[in-house]
Amino acid sequence: MAGPLDDPDLVLRFWKPHGVMTAFTDRDGRATLADFIDVPGVFAGGRLDRDSEGLLLLTRGKRLRTELMRPDIGHPRSYLVQVEGIPSDDELFHLASGVDLKDGRSRPATAERLEVAPTLPDRDPPIRVRKTVPDSWIRLTLTEGKNRQVRRMTAAVGHPTLRLVRERIGAVTLDGLAPGEWEVLDRTERGELDATLRAAAGPSQPARGRRRRGPRSRG
Fold first, then answer.
1. Do 12 and 184 contact (CB within 8 A), yes or no?
2. 161 in helix, strand or coil?
3. How many other β-carbons are positioned within 10 Å of the β-carbon of residue 75?
4. How buried is residue 159: exposed, middle or buried, by Cβ count under 10 Å (0-12/13-18/19+)?
5. 129 and 182: one domain?
6. In a 10 Å sphere around its CB, with 0-12 CB exposed, 13-18 middle and 19+ buried, how is residue 49 labelled?
7. Which residue has the higher pLDDT, 47 or 109?
8. DSSP code of 19?
9. Residue 86's CATH number
10. Of 19, 25, 94, 164, which one's alpha carbon is 20 to 30 angstroms from that of 110?
């Protein structure tokens, strides 16, 4: 009897731990997704750097994976970011309004300083801190995914990233997971994810990326 893991459009949410490659193989013998996920035929819809943590979506469906990775579909992604120093209101405004990076200016985002540090498992290995420099947490929500973008943005405003945890992609979150754990998205959660992608694509550009066909000629 077929079960949830046999679904051809299977979607998993996974808490990628620090130090794990966003791949199932690594020629250098580093930790990979295969050390945590033994479900055949799934691939990551997007990436997280080896030194970043948090939410990663994996799917068997090529269509969804393509949508998650398309640069023109700006679905929201939220990150908890521990930085050196305490960003000022002006620096948070700079992060939100756009930062000039080598590969172009970042899109408008949301950036807020967290007055209380988020409740997260300790990182292994722990971050390296300087006793003479305070640190703080911010939440960044982006609608694009340039290479190492969060780290480059915080560095550009003078606050290097110490720890980076992606907490949300659209309506899908880390809630209920621990580092290294994964869970199958149910039909409702998958519907919410599809709705997020459709909304991000806009009315003139279907998220599914299929060509709209006009009526066939009968001539």
1. yes
2. strand
3. 22
4. buried
5. no
6. middle
7. 109
8. T
9. 3.30.70.1560
10. 19
- Whether 93 is in a domain gets the answer yes
CA 212/CA 51 separation, integer angstroms = 41
The 3-state DSSP class for residue 102 equals: coil
Does one domain contain both 69 and 174? yes
48 in a structural domain: yes
Same structural domain for residues 31 and 99? no
Catalytic residues: 49
Please tell me whether residues 113 and 55 are part of one structural domain.
no
pTM of the predicted model over 0.85: yes
The answer to whether residues 82 and 98 belong to one domain is yes
DSSP helix/strand/coil, 99:
coil
Task: Give the CA distances from residue 90 to residues 52, 86, 141, in Å, rounded to whole numbers and listed in that order.
Answer: 26, 11, 17
| Residue 146 pLDDT class (50, 70, 90 cuts) | confident
- Contact between residue 154 and residue 83 where contact means Cβ atoms under 8 Å apart: yes
